[in-house]
Amino acid sequence: MNKSLQTYLNTNTKAAPLAVFRVFFGVLMCVSIIRFWSYGWIDKFYIAPDFHFTFYGFSWVRPLGEWTYLLFAICAISTVMITLGWKYRFAMITFFLSFTYIELMDKTTYLNHYYFISILSFLLIFLPAGHYFSLDTLSRKHIKKQPYSSNEITGYIPRWSLDSIKLLLGIVYIYAGLAKLNSDWLVKAMPLKIWFPAKFDIPLIGNLLTKEWVQYAFSWIGAGYDLCIPFLLLWKPTRTFGFIAVVIFHILTRVLFPIGMFPYIMIVSTLIFFDASIHKKIIYGLARLVKYPKVLLEGNAAWQPVSVVRYKIVITVITLFFCIQLLLPWRYALYPGELFWTEEGYRFSWRVMLMEKSGYAQFKIKDGVTGKRFYVNNADFLTPLQEKQMSFQPDFILEYAHYLRDHFTAQGHQNVEVYVESYVTLNGRLSNTYIDPDVNLAEIKESFIHKHWINPFNDEIKGL
Amino acid sequence: MKRILGILVLVAFVYACSSSDNDSDSDDNQGFNPSNFDRTPLLENWADNIIIPGYIDFLSKVNTLQTETTAFTENSNDLTAIRAAWLDAYTTWQRVSMFENGPAETVGLRLNVNIYPANVETIENNIASGSYNLDLSSNRVAKGFPALDYLLFGIASNDDNILDIYNGPEGEAYKQYLEDIVADMQSLTTTVLDEWQGGFRDDFVANNGSSATASVDRLANDYIFYFEKFLRAGKMGIPGGVFSGDVEPNTIEALYAGNLSKLFFIEGLDAVQDFFNGVSYNGSTQGESLGSYLDELNVLEDGTNLSTTINNQFDTAREFVNGLNTFEQELQSIPPTNFLNAYDEVQRIVPLLKVDMVSALSISIDFADADGD
């Protein structure tokens, strides 16, 4: 192994920032789940609908009926355990699995920030976040005799564990920024030009939002913000300024758009960039509040892996994880056609708030034997949100077409053929036919291969 | 520095948290919107020049129907006057059916007044037993205009036989049922109009925000829903077998009177287009409307004017439907090709309203977190 890399991997840093991150992460996730639950969304999104849109390869991940509540409860309990640092690794694995399962149940509710939580919690499984200011530390030390020796108490962790979180945040911001470097965003100020006028009723800034120059300013500043913020946060002289920018930016997005908990999660996450001294203050404050023994916060020992082999595996997994994170957003380049139109390779790539896209899809069923034809009333099968998402995303359209094929075959129709008449509008362009209306979707198989049955986009969007 | 940071974070959090997830109430910023994106004039035009005058007219027609019903029950020798009053009220209904919002939504006006086809069996059972509760949802198929259609045109093969029933041994029961149905329509409509003329009008106009619960978004949703489900599907699609594969002439509107469903469709289409253009109920003045709002936003590129495109498609659809014989005649040919071609033109309006207009106006359909992808 490269020597300087070896040195880097052996460098330690104070444990407080990771502990603060763990506590805030746990609290925010707990609030997220309670919020989701209290809005009745568990029932609305997962239990009430008969049909669910699944991710390719994950069609076996289904809501569990009334047991879905138990799944959310398990997820919520794990967030409390994470906050307390009680059986940390077990709690983190439980959270990762339950949360990811929830997100895989129906891709209608896919959001980039849910994906962010999933991969972040995966990363956190491998980080020693439960060895400082935690119940785990407390119970471990109780076995031993007092007085504690500060050499036995963990106060340091590998530097890479903090850096890996910074890297992940950096990837999110920079890829989100790169995705904005396109002609719709920069030259036409789309989709903000559509969204902002409808926000005229926001106090103080509502009137400004209807002005064209403001829409352009937000587009350009937004792109610049995403591209610069990781560097502003990394460099000490600009760090405070960067953080103020983070707060203002995310509060603005919170006010302007219905994006739930995401702004808070990002604001709190970026605290990781700050020096350990700030985190120590937070930890000491919290410790006083819960009467956590101060002596346990002043250890000098560095965290040690259980075994070298295991440590090597962890490093390998994390390296692979980041390789995937760096490459995945570029997969769209393997597909022909306009990404915004076909959405092939759109998800899991930090493409956020880039499109005002909506559609309308009317399915025609044809009995291949009798020749009888009729249209489907989507509301009979889908919730309004599902119908909305389905109407402009080809993989949704195909999965739904297959569901209709099976449904009407079960009803006694033979050789069922499924056609769709669909229209989609993208960033203010007049709607156009989206899917080839002459293609029998019942015969098309889902795959990662280019969907040739999407009609070509009649315009050009330049840029990344 | 750190203290400032802390305060900043705190203030920001409190501010963000205090703007609720549904941020719908915006009465507090009235007069704060000198921009032309203010939706108040639009809502005022809808309420004062279209919806309320519409309900006033409709209620007066229902009142006439009630008068004629009483006259008929007193002297059951001639169906002409009561039928004319029924037709007049039913035609006017096509003008207000789309406003199933607020008071009308609360009482379920459309569900109570015009669910068709009527269930003849339920009607006859109700009349025979003499005890029925018209408030029950199970009786929605046994009242309103479709039930009157049956009672005035369908209970016997010709007019003389119909009058014989009203003058026969069970005549009193039939008359009672007629009166009860009309009274039910009258009371529902009165409730709706009273609410609009009471506090609801001001609430409606004051709710001038831009969330999923704001007046514009809600009424626009109801409007599109009406067009898609009741005008397009109910009056044409379902009878034409578009959704079942089989022509279903028995699901036509005004089945027993006959030859009216086309007129009702055209009346409904006119009403929908007039609403789109903000045309006053009594007259032809145009006010603020979905169309003018689209023109103001003018987000579409390539020079196309969305409101013109939509109006053109309304006109094309009307032309095609006007070119048809009565729906009853059209549905006799299997498949009813001309009818289905006209339907296709009506259908073409749906994506224009549901995709292009909704997208351009940023109308919220359903509330959930979204990061816009």
What does this protein look like?
The complex is a heterodimer of chains A (464) and B (373). With 464 residues, chain A is α+β, with helices and mostly antiparallel strands. Chain A has helices spanning 3-10, 16-38, 41-47, 68-84, 88-105, 112-125, 135-143, 159-179, 183-186, 192-195, 206-209, 212-234, 236-256, 262-269, 276-290, 308-327, 339-342, 384-390, 394-410, and strands at residues 12-14, 154-158, 301-302, 357-367, 373-375, 416-426, 432-433. Chain A has a domain at 356-443. In chain A, the strands form two sheets. A four-stranded antiparallel sheet of chain A has the order 5-4-6-7. In chain A, strands 1-2-3 form a three-stranded mixed sheet. In chain A, helix 8 (159-179) packs antiparallel against helix 12 (212-234). Chain B folds into two domains: 47-207, M75 peptidase, HXXE motif (A middle domain of Talin 1), CATH 1.20.1420; 209-366. Chain B contains 16 helices and no strands. By secondary structure, chain B is mostly helical. The two termini of chain B are 37 Å apart.
What's the structural blueprint in terms of helices and strands?
The complex is a heterodimer of chains A (464) and B (373).
Chain A (H helix, E strand, L loop, with lengths): L2 H8 L1 E3 L1 H23 L2 H7 L20 H17 L3 H18 L6 H14 L9 H9 L10 E5 H21 L3 H4 L5 H4 L10 H4 L2 H23 L1 H21 L5 H8 L6 H15 L10 E2 L5 H20 L11 H4 L14 E11 L5 E3 L8 H7 L3 H17 L5 E11 L5 E2 L31
Parallel strand pairs in A: 2-3
Antiparallel strand pairs in A: 1-2, 4-5, 4-6, 6-7
Helix pairs in contact in A: 2-4, 2-14, 2-15, 4-5, 5-6, 6-8, 8-12, 12-13, 13-14
Chain B lengths: L1 H17 L21 H35 L5 H17 L6 H5 L1 H5 L6 H10 L14 H11 L4 H9 L3 H36 L8 H23 L23 H17 L12 H8 L8 H17 L4 H4 L6 H11 L1 H13 L12
Helix pairs in contact in B: 2-3, 2-9, 3-7, 3-11, 7-9, 8-9, 10-11, 10-15, 10-16, 11-13, 13-15, 13-16
